[in-house]
Write a structure and sequence with these properties.
The protein has about 110 residues and is mainly alpha-helical. It is about 40% helix and about 5% strand. The protein contains five helices and two strands; from the N terminus they run E-E-H-H-H-H-H.
């Protein structure tokens, strides 16, 4: 657990190779710097043509990749859920969108 003492000292930070990254993180924790830099706050999202994406063009409807993306999309759309999933949760949430079983190891699908 990352904590900040009343003296301003931050403890239990992850071990980082770059000292400047560590200093930036500590400044954000102390409230000295914004989490999102001002130049990025007004940035518009880039428009992307997902229909032309090579991976998405080959994706099989109700296949494993489709099911996983659907589960991740639904999770990201839910504001009250944490924004990550464990493997077992991902398999459970993706299964309704897949025609083959998602349980088992890497070569389990037939």
């Amino acid at each position: 657990e990352i904590r900040q003492y009343s003296s301003g000292r931050v403890v239990n930070m992850p071990k980082l190779k770059e000292r400047t990254t560590l200093l930036e993180l500590e400044a954000i924790l102390r409230g000295e710097k914004p989490i999102v830099p001002p130049e990025m706050q007004e940035a518009e999202p880039v428009e992307r043509d997902y229909a032309q994406h090579p991976y998405l063009k080959r994706m099989q409807f109700r296949g494993g990749g489709y099911a996983i993306l659907m589960a991740l999309h639904l999770r990201s759309a839910s504001a009250n859920l944490r924004q990550f999933m464990y493997k077992s949760e991902l398999i459970h949430d993706a299964q309704p969108y897949c025609d083959v079983t998602m349980e088992g190891g890497w070569g389990a699908a037939n």
